[in-house]
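R.M. (postdoc): so does anyone remember the format we settled on? I'll just put the structure tokens first.
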């Protein structure tokens, strides 16, 4: 349904107030909870709900499967997901809706900005050493990192990084005369975190360039 049709059917549409991307293990859940509790009767806060991330990753998933992805269709998909998640039927609709995206979603800030250019977003981060320590805290007492069992989040793609991540990791490895396969698990985790921060930094710089050239974009 279009927004007009939905409104006519009794649905109220609340556009995204802001979206939170993050580095992982950096306090983003605290940020999400603070937003949710700031005005409990006026705020809806989604914390790492799957639909927004799946929409942001849609083209990558199709390309990895050898299929074509229409960027305009993905743009519409992202808009539709946020629209559907912002619908309410009760009269006392929330006045603000916040979204915290999974950490891997930081790689897709560009797709988000393309679809929702006027929606403010933030990237939450923390000292990288502290983040690494948090990821490996369960293994500091001599526990092995199983090849098939639970792993730190930053090692989920260890050994087989997705195509988008592989290119940046390969660039990082080459700059130090290394190969990805020669990295330790700790080094791979550090590089993974770097790709998330790099994506956010690239988008921040893109916004700065757009602003200096007279363009407009949410900050």
């Amino acid at each position: 349904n279009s927004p007009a049709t939905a409104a006519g059917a009794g649905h109220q549409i609340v556009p995204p107030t802001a979206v939170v991307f993050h580095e992982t293990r950096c306090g983003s859940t605290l940020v999400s909870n603070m937003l949710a509790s700031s005005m409990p009767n006026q705020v809806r806060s989604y914390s790492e709900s799957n639909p927004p991330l799946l929409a942001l990753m849609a083209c990558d998933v199709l390309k990895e499967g050898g299929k074509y992805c229409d960027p305009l269709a993905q743009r519409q998909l992202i808009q539709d997901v946020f629209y559907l998640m912002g619908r309410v039927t009760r009269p006392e609709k929330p006045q603000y809706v916040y979204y915290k995206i999974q950490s891997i979603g930081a790689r897709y800030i560009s797709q988000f900005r393309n679809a929702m250019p006027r929606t403010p977003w933030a990237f939450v981060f923390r000292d990288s050493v502290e983040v690494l320590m948090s990821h490996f805290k369960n293994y500091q007492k001599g526990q092995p990192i199983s090849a098939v069992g639970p792993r730190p989040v930053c090692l989920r793609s260890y050994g087989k990084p997705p195509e988008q991540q592989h290119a940046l990791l390969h660039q990082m490895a080459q700059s130090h005369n290394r190969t990805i396969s020669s990295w330790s698990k700790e080094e791979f985790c550090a590089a993974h975190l770097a790709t998330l921060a790099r994506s956010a930094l690239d988008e921040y710089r893109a916004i700065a360039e757009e602003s200096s050239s007279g363009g407009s974009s949410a900050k």
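R.M.: ...and that's the designed sequence above, right after the tokens. Also worth knowing: The radius of gyration is 19 Å. Strands lie at 12-13, 18-22, 43-47, 87-88, 96-100, 121-124.
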